[in-house]
Amino acid sequence: MSLTHLLGAHISAAGGIQNALRRGHELQCTTIQIFTKSPNQWKERCIERADGLSFQALRQEMKIAPVIAHAGYLINLASPFRELYERSIDAIVREVARCEELGIPYLVIHPGSHTGCGEERAIELLVDALDAVHEQTVSSSLTILLEISAGQGTSMGSTLEQIARMIDSVQESKRIGFCLDTCHAFAAGYEFRTKADYQRFIDKIGTIIGLERLLVIHLNDSKSGCGSKVDRHEHIGKGMIGERPFGWFMRDERLRKIPKIIETPGLGKDLATDRMNLERLRKLAEE
Asked: In this predicted model, what pLDDT tens digit does every residue of 32-65 receive, in sequence order?
């Protein structure tokens, strides 16, 4: 596979955040994604300045760039419940601070869930939350990426139109980008299993959101069918999407410089399956 491909995995930071880089290097990743703290707890990890500089030096040594962060799962910037809403804003502000210490340029977040308040109100809440985050992180160069959702339950952001509206409504919209997840998009109802459908899908992203805003791609197969609204990741080529479309994503010149990350079962803890999925994508890139 050409080194111009930015391909990697979501990697566990167990035992110390620098271990994520070492595991990624072992897998021959040119980019990786990490959690900067436990995704299932509010408890924060403090990144000391020395640790941040050491992480950045090791990243340069191992030639992994960019490193991408994914926000925790408890965060809901579209919540109508004030305590959770305010706590979520504070959590994102601290996520941004950790990313700055580590030299991470992108933070992927889920658009949140409306939990009954309705989509219109949820969009207003999300936009206000992002504006608040930006006001508290004026000096940050980080870009927050809204990840498309599968549309399960009351989750927001399952259509390109809704993602585009969220981005365009933020005051500093240049600080917001888009993260495409193939499993989520497929489960949300976007079809790309034929070459013609794939081309239409990428063109639609370009028209509605803008390919310049597509900054990270999560390459995941899906256990569930197209339009199922069920978010269940599968190994590359083993799910309902199948192997061929991933070759199109890997070989599309328009997407060549965009970091591509697998979040397949095991999620960074099982290097054997990560290696299997990455090797499959590398082979597809050369076909």
From this structure: 999 999 999 999 878 889 999 999 999 999 999 9
The CATH number that applies at residue 246 is 3.20.20.150
Q: What is the pLDDT of residues 133-163, one digit of tens each?
A: 999 999 999 999 999 999 999 999 999 999 9
Residue 144 in any domain: the answer is: yes
Cα–Cα dist 247/265, whole Å: 20
Closest CA to 111 of 156, 73, 81, 175: 156
Which amino acid appears at position 260 of this protein?
A: K
User: Does 3 have pLDDT greater than 60?
Assistant: no
CA–CA gap between residue 154 and residue 250 (Å, rounded): 32
Residues with Cβ within 8 Å of residue 108, at least 6 apart in sequence: 33, 68, 69, 70, 71, 145, 147, 179, 216
Residue 286 domain-assigned?
Answer: no
Domain of residue 123: give its range: 7-276
Contacts of 114 (CB under 8 A, 6+ apart): 78, 80, 121, 122, 154, 156
> Distance between CA 218 and CA 260 in Å, rounded?
6
Distance (Å, whole) CA 97 – CA 244: 39
Whole-model pTM over 0.90: yes
